[in-house]
């Protein structure tokens, strides 16, 4: 292949201190311009892979290679600091990196606008809905101009309509910014709608069970979800997931 | 702007956070009325016991409320005596409390930073709480003298533990996701402490201060009761009134010191309300 991967897992295994084996010899490459969803049964190590990429965990063996230090990470919960306004929350990464005030304000304003939260800069997280909090969390990650963007099951707690809308909007960000995306989810339709590739993991310990390309062009129309081609791919992912689950039980 | 997330509907109506009044007791009727009812009932029960249960000759055991008011508060000499003593007690308590807050937060911060510091220091913080203060007060007298400084040390000693435990609890209450966020962005230890742990700990810290406030006043009174030197405080006056069988003054001194404790508690409660609002609660 010509382009170097943005994120590569090379034979990565991870055993936690308590003896739990989370990942077993995982090989996975994500190239710039790819958006890869990780699906799998609970406890298969999907989130652990993101945590390894972000440096929160260290692999027991194998290597995790990141091509860029422009890393965006959206957590399962919005994890905004409740005592800070939306604007100050979005500024946080730049603030920690020592970016001068004027510039980080500018970046935060831009990011807030891009996630459609303009006008809510001075609200506190408690005054926002779950969907809006997630938008703020995405804006916070955007301020770093991520080249690798990790999403750890970000929309699991949202209602279906909000979730679909945010799926479409993250898709738009992907089209514009062309980052390499890794998206952990439990939802098969979400994984197919978002991604250029769906990787199914089985557990435990986690191992790649299937790698299914999704050929639909971007930007993706919301109506794509109701086409026969979409249903076919979704059922393929479901089947792989069922297989993974059975294997996990065996 | 090219591709963006679609805008959330403009927040025209709620663009401004609704301004809440600075004075937090807007539910005044119940919050003021209920304690007043209790006050009236207690005073009535007190007056009834004093007049109906106790024979005239031994009325000094429990003088009635109006006698306490007349001889303790309305009598100029007694009033001056008690208020002067109260001021001395309050000064000691406030200095002690301030020191306890500074030292306690400092200790808790140190303990939150390294596990070995917590393991090695925490048992002694607990010991501090369980030492019978009455046994230590005379020792402090031997070591540090019998005046202002020693009284303050006693206050610090009794007020320190709630500050340490509550602050430490607050510092450790930060969720692992928030810690991950700071790790992701390469936060320094100081940034993590200053921008994450301390703000998150603030509500718990203030609950600690609330307890310590009352403790500091008790400490100040107890120390003065024992040391009986320097400017007389409430502790010494209580002993004097006891010997004189001046129950009216004794009760006045007690009631006024509790009022100070109450005022201190309210101050911290008010502060807690502001912090809760800052954290988006209430």
UniProtKB/TrEMBL annotation, chain B:
<protein>
    <submittedName>
        <fullName>Nitrate ABC transporter permease</fullName>
    </submittedName>
</protein>
<dbReference type="InterPro" id="IPR035906">
    <property type="entry name" value="MetI-like_sf"/>
</dbReference>
<feature type="transmembrane region" description="Helical">
    <location>
        <begin position="121"/>
        <end position="145"/>
    </location>
</feature>
<feature type="transmembrane region" description="Helical">
    <location>
        <begin position="85"/>
        <end position="109"/>
    </location>
</feature>
<dbReference type="Pfam" id="PF00528">
    <property type="entry name" value="BPD_transp_1"/>
</dbReference>
<keyword id="KW-0813">Transport</keyword>
<dbReference type="GO" id="GO:0055085">
    <property type="term" value="P:transmembrane transport"/>
</dbReference>
<feature type="domain" description="ABC transmembrane type-1">
    <location>
        <begin position="86"/>
        <end position="272"/>
    </location>
</feature>
<keyword id="KW-1133">Transmembrane helix</keyword>
<keyword id="KW-1003">Cell membrane</keyword>
<feature type="transmembrane region" description="Helical">
    <location>
        <begin position="152"/>
        <end position="171"/>
    </location>
</feature>
<feature type="transmembrane region" description="Helical">
    <location>
        <begin position="32"/>
        <end position="54"/>
    </location>
</feature>
<feature type="transmembrane region" description="Helical">
    <location>
        <begin position="250"/>
        <end position="272"/>
    </location>
</feature>
<dbReference type="GO" id="GO:0005886">
    <property type="term" value="C:plasma membrane"/>
</dbReference>
<dbReference type="InterPro" id="IPR000515">
    <property type="entry name" value="MetI-like"/>
</dbReference>
<comment type="similarity">
    <text>Belongs to the binding-protein-dependent transport system permease family.</text>
</comment>
<keyword id="KW-0472">Membrane</keyword>
<keyword id="KW-0812">Transmembrane</keyword>
